[in-house]
Design goal:
The chain is an alpha/beta fold. It folds into two domains: about 5-280 and about 440-465, Aldolase class I (TIM Barrel); about 300-435, no CATH class. It has 13 helices and 18 strands. It has helices at about 30-35, 70-95, 110-120, 140-145, 155-165, 205-215, 265-275, 300-310, 340-350, 370-380, 415-425, 430-435, 460-465; strands spanning about 5-10, 10-15, 15-20, 40-45, 100-105, 130, 150-155, 180, 190, 225-230, 250-255, 280-285, 290-295, 310-315, 325-330, 335, 355-360, 365. The strands form five sheets. An eight-stranded parallel beta sheet has the order 3-11-10-8-7-6-5-4. Strands 9-13-12 form a three-stranded antiparallel beta sheet, with no helix packed on it. It has a three-stranded antiparallel beta sheet with strand order 14-18-17. A hairpin with a 2-residue loop joins strand 1 (about 5-10) and strand 2 (about 10-15).
């Protein structure tokens, strides 16, 4: 493999190896500080990160507010305190080497407010802000206020063009790099546009080349592009290294750092990674954000699939073929379905899926009474972890904090499940019952000889291995 030379990023020469930020609490101060100590760019998640008491014990994020607005304020306080704690730990572990970035989601609840307060309280500890999941126009303004570099995550040249023209051109000197996140291969939430087919992945090279050409039009010839999604062995990317057509390129690793000794995920999760097969990670659209996301196909995902398949359209009045009356809810309020759908739903009821829940699209889904109670309880307990959520109908943008739409029971509480899997992943049962994000290359743990006999490297060992090209 070609020699991998240092690259200028964030005002410092570093290895062009970036740890991808993974929330909630999956990329933390220990993992990111260790990555920076190895000479690269460590990224901790500033999304509802863990905080600690005076004895070093994790503070559970328990909400006491009676209203969503009150709970939202509690969430903001937890988020700021946790991100500052992780920044401090990362900074201390890095010992002045590499770079430390904080990763946020622009569509998380109170994103702008949280990252502003974090940067105010963690001055000098954070070198850069990485941000995706939306169009973060205000990211450059925040970075300029605190004199830190910023790294927008995009999936197309078109998206960067819009960001640059609207805002980033005013803070060009602090644009540390642009993360190109492959919308078909990256883990977590993905930036597929409506014109792109989730079943037809595109070659990233032409898309990244288009991004570079767009950046050159703005005088950004030497600003690094960080390739994220689908990166495993660097010898598979040799044509990208020192390629004058692409300019300076760094590589982001999101999935591989999960399987390190410094990774905070539990042993059961780490063992599960070693057993994944090709196809076990797939794109789905169950997320309450409305984005596609990549996750392991486990019991949690399968229940969502089944829940969405047990669905029929209904009408409040007899219209067309919707002539069969059906009673919904405790009072059995009448709606009308087709005779064929009435027969189908009677079959689901016979299997125990007796509770019909209305969706915003004038459909009914059928679940067990236990699942119905869980869905309603999760919706009621909403604390506004997203800027707007289709599962609970929360919105931070309106005075009444609602999207104006009916809450959608076909989705799930993302805060609850990510907190559960982050902190209970020593339990194999927990892994089946919760959302498990992963990049699509996760199956390669099982065949990569580096992990033979269940070997789990330190971050230092992983970085050294990556530098060999394998």
């Amino acid at each position: 493999m070609k020699a991998l030379n240092a690259i200028r990023m964030g005002g410092m020469d570093v290895l062009p190896l970036v740890e991808g930020g993974k929330g909630i609490s999956i990329s933390n101060g220990r993992s990111s500080g260790s990555w920076a100590l190895a000479g690269g760019v460590g990224t901790f998640s500033a999304v509802n990160a863990d905080s600690y008491d005076a004895s070093g014990r994790r503070i559970p994020q328990i909400y006491h507010g009676r209203t969503r607005r009150e709970r939202h304020e509690e969430l903001v306080a937890y988020s700021v305190r946790g991100a500052v704690a992780q920044a401090r730990q990362a900074y201390e572990m890095a010992c002045g080497k590499g770079r430390i970035h904080a990763n946020i989601l622009w569509e998380m609840g109170a994103a702008e407010r949280i990252i502003t307060e974090v940067l105010e309280q963690a001055k000098g500890l954070i070198n850069g802000i990485t941000c995706g999941a939306g169009m973060p126009y205000r990211l450059s303004d925040i970075a300029a206020r605190f004199g830190v570099y910023y790294y927008p995550i995009v999936s197309s040249a078109r998206a960067f063009n819009a960001l640059w023209k609207r805002a980033y051109s005013r803070a060009a000197s602090l644009l540390g790099g642009v993360v190109y996140e492959d919308p078909w291969l990256a883990g977590g939430h993905n930036g597929l546009s409506n014109s792109e087919d989730p079943t037809k992945p595109e070659d990233p090279y032409p898309r990244v080349l288009a991004l570079r050409k767009q950046m050159r039009e703005f005088g950004l010839d030497n600003t690094p592009i960080i390739m994220a999604g689908g990166v495993w062995w660097l010898d598979e990317w040799q044509d990208w290294i020192d390629n004058p057509e692409l300019g300076p390129v760094a590589f982001q690793f999101g999935t591989r750092p999960l399987l390190t000794q410094e990774s905070p995920i539990g042993e059961a999760w780490k063992k599960r990674l070693l057993t994944l097969k090709e196809g076990d990670v797939f794109l789905n659209r169950f997320s309450p954000t409305g984005f596609y996301s990549s996750a392991v196909n486990n019991g949690f995902i399968q229940e969502l699939r089944d829940r969405n398949e047990r669905q029929v359209a209904y009408s409040a009045e007899q219209v067309g073929e919707h002539v069969a009356e059906y009673g919904v809810g405790p009072r059995k309020r009448p709606v009308y379905v087709t005779p064929a759908d009435l027969q189908r739903l009677r079959g689901w009821e016979a299997q125990g899926f007796t509770e019909a829940l209305r969706t915003p699209d004038s459909t009914l889904i059928f679940v067990t009474p236990e699942k119905a109670r869980e869905i309603v309880a999760d919706q009621v307990a909403c604390m506004g972890c997203l800027s707007q959520c289709r599962f609970s109908n929360w919105s931070q943008h309106d005075a009444d904090h609602t999207t104006g739409k009916k809450a959608d029971p076909r989705s799930f509480c993302i805060q609850k499940t990510l907190q559960d899997i982050a902190h209970e992943s020593n339990d194999a049962v927990t892994l089946e019952r919760n959302l498990m994000f992963s990049g699509h290359n996760g199956y390669r743990f099982a065949s990569d000889p580096f992990y033979s006999n269940g070997f789990i490297p330190t971050v230092k060992q992983l970085v050294e291995r990556i530098l060999t090209g394998r």
